[in-house]
Amino acid sequence: MADGHDARASSKRAKADRMLQERTHDPYLTRHKYAEPTVCPSCSAVYHQGRWHWARTPEGAESHTCPACQRVHDDYPAGVITLSGAYVAPHRDDILRLARNEEEAEKVEHPLARIMKTEEQGADLVISTTDMHLARRISQALRRAHHGELDYHYAEETHLLRVTWTHA
């Protein structure tokens, strides 16, 4: 009986440790609450009721750069999608349009989810995002629309999701 109790206690400690680690590894996570309301001077997102929203700038709002704009400024993405294969070049415009449509749909409810940049790296196309969930959403939309293979790698120590999408 003591063994079962010790195993449960150990499991709870491990889960608590994991939860603490998850909360501390993203350098762009807000560690404090902003004064309410606060507005981002770069994108005009408004911090209200504990989260960032798209809203009119309230009278007397404080100014603070939102985490997404800070990531763009620092060139520190949370998601990187690398698209490779012979399929990419002839379908580049369609792929980028799909990625921008996914970004717009996500940004309606989540102002911190944005495409930072798109760039050519040799024959590959690379899309960087401010949010790892947006990177996953874009990559899944690519697979639904254009098929291909997806490979996900999450680097916990840098809070970065790397997605590789390949299509012959």
Brief synopsis:
The protein is α+β, with helices and mostly antiparallel strands and 168 residues long. The protein is 38% helix and 26% strand.
What can you see in these coordinates?
This protein has 168 residues and is of the alpha+beta class. Helix content is 38%, strand content 26%. Helix 3 packs across helix 4. It starts with a helix and ends with a strand.
Keywords, separated by commas or semicolons:
single chain, alpha+beta, 2 domains, four-stranded mixed β-sheet, elongated
What is this structure's SSE topology?
Layout: H1 2-24, E1 38-39, E2 46-48, E3 51-53, E4 62-63, H2 67-74, E5 79-84, H3 92-109, E6 115-121, E7 124-129, H4 132-146, E8 149-155, E9 160-166
Helix pairs in contact: 3-4
Which sheet architecture does the biggest sheet show?
Answer: 5 strands, mixed
Q: Into how many domains do the coordinates divide? A: 2
- Note the beta-strand portion: 25-35%
Number of helices: 4
Q: What distance separates the N and C termini?
A: 57 Å
| SSE string, helices as H and strands as E | HEEEEHEHEEHEE
Rounded radius of gyration (Å):
19 Å
Strand order of the largest sheet: 6-7-5-9-8
Q: What percentage of residues falls in helices of 4 or more residues?
A: 25-40%
Average pLDDT: 87
What are the low-pLDDT stretches, counting only 5+ consecutive residues below 50? 16-24
Structural class by SSE content? alpha+beta
β-strand number: 9
- Shape category: elongated
